[in-house]
Amino acid sequence: MALPPVLQNLRIPVVGSPLFIISNPDLVIAQCKAGIVGSFPALNAREKDGDPVMLEAWLKRITEELDRHNQDNPDTPAAPFAVNQIVHRSNSRLERDLEICHKWKVPIWITSLGARVEVNEAAHDCGGITLHDIINNRFAHKAIEKGADGLIAVAAGAGGHAGAQSPMALVSEIREWFDGPLLLSGAIANGRSILAAQAMGADLAYIGSPFIATDEANAVPDYKQMIAEHGAEDIVYSSLFTGVWGNYLKPSIARAGMDPDNLPEANPSTMNFGDDREKPKSWKEIWGSGQGIGAIKKVQPAAQLVDTLATQYAEAKDEMRRLLNG
User: Fold this and answer.
1) What is the distance between the alpha carbons of residues 293 and 299, in angstroms, rounded to a whole number?
2) Cα separation of 309 and 303, whole Å?
3) Which residues, in sequence order, are CB contacts of 122 under 8 Å at separation 6+?
4) Neighbours of 50 (CB within 10 A)
5) How many CB atoms neighbour CB 52 within 10 A?
6) Are 169 and 189 in contact (CB under 8 A)?
7) How confident is the model at residue 5 (pLDDT cuts 50, 70, 90)?
8) Is the per-residue pLDDT at 282 higher than 70?
9) Of 182, 10, 147, which Cα lies nearest the Cα of 81?
10) Checking DSSP bridges between strand 129-134 and strand 150-154, what pairing results, if any?
């Protein structure tokens, strides 16, 4: 099946994944101008008493800046952007955020932690598409049955809330029955890995952790530097911090006074994506990351990172052609 038009004609087949707290308008705009889909979680647009609706302000800025860029650069237009909705009962903002995204005709809706028909319908009603992230084949079936247009396979090694299955196994099982848009997440941090994701059967790569170490990312300098200085062996898989299994940087856990190699499991009922007041303050400095960060050696502008990925991707394709042609 051909990709929907909104996912075609990207500079490279990449969607920048929505990073909790980290993704902001600066990063999204930079990603889109560089030629890949930029995204952010709706809940990142946090509000304070007396302030206007922050999500609406973010969407206005992103839409207007990308429109201006496209008018000034008709031969190299920006890629579209996406907004991530946490479809979990703890998200008290969901209904209102859906209305705002519908009003601004968000082109790509990424849904997580629950598949709901009404969310897909809202996206379709304003001309958008929905991509639902899943960690196994059972959840993939449920998402498509409820009207999602595409899937994001969050495999082992992905940053944040990640699955435990091999990307090869997960993509293979999904492709047995689904020929629609399929994105793959899990330790993808260079151009060769982007091509490998396509070779396995995915249409696009879903990349998050490398963008933490960019100038535009809303992360403290220590977090960015930790991404640039560590690798796969420095990642731990735990459910402790949100109630959902995910990957985190061991040094950040140790710095908070815990033993990263002996963490207890959490009760799933502790999941909370709307208000973190009940969590220990130290947990705000527990930093998520995928296993692919060994490829990241420095903090740099997002556009520079995309340039590097594009060059590596082109070189990997040339190398594969030579191999296949003997």
Assistant:
1) 12
2) 10
3) 98, 99, 101, 102, 109
4) 5
5) 8
6) no
7) very high
8) no
9) 10
10) parallel
Alpha carbon 139 to chain centroid distance? 18
Give CA–CA dist 287/52, Å, rounded.
Answer: 29
For the residues 281-291, what does the mean pLDDT come to? 82
Higher pLDDT, 277 or 298: 298
pTM of the model: 0.92
Tokens 């991530």 sit on residue: 84
215 three-state secondary structure? coil
Beta carbons of 83 and 101 less than 8 angstroms apart: yes
Supply the pLDDT for residue 15: 98
18, 153, 157, 252, 292 from 166: Cα distances, Å: 22, 10, 9, 26, 14
Q: What tens digit of pLDDT does each residue of 158-212 get? A: 998 889 999 999 999 999 999 999 999 999 999 999 999 999 999 999 999 999 9
Please classify residue 177 by burial: count the beta carbons closer than 10 Å to its beta carbon, then call 0-12 exposed, 13-18 middle and 19+ buried.
exposed
d(CA 2, CA 21): 33
Q: State both tokens at 65.
A: 């800046």
Q: Are 36 and 14 in contact (CB under 8 A)?
A: yes
Q: Are 55 and 45 within 8 A, CB to CB?
A: yes
8 A C-beta contact, residue 260 and residue 253: yes
Between CA 211 and CA 19 the distance in angstroms is 9
What percent of the chain is modeled with pLDDT above 70?
93
Mean pLDDT of 251-264: 92
- Looking at residues 44-54, what average pLDDT do you find? 76
CB atoms within 10 A of CB 272: 15
Domains defined for the chain, CATH in brackets: 11-219+292-324 (3.20.20.70)
How far CA 49 is from CA of 5, 41, 63, in Å, comes to: 40, 20, 25
Radius of gyration (C-alpha) of the chain in whole angstroms: 19
Segment among 16-20, 212-216, 264-268, 269-273 with least mean pLDDT? 269-273
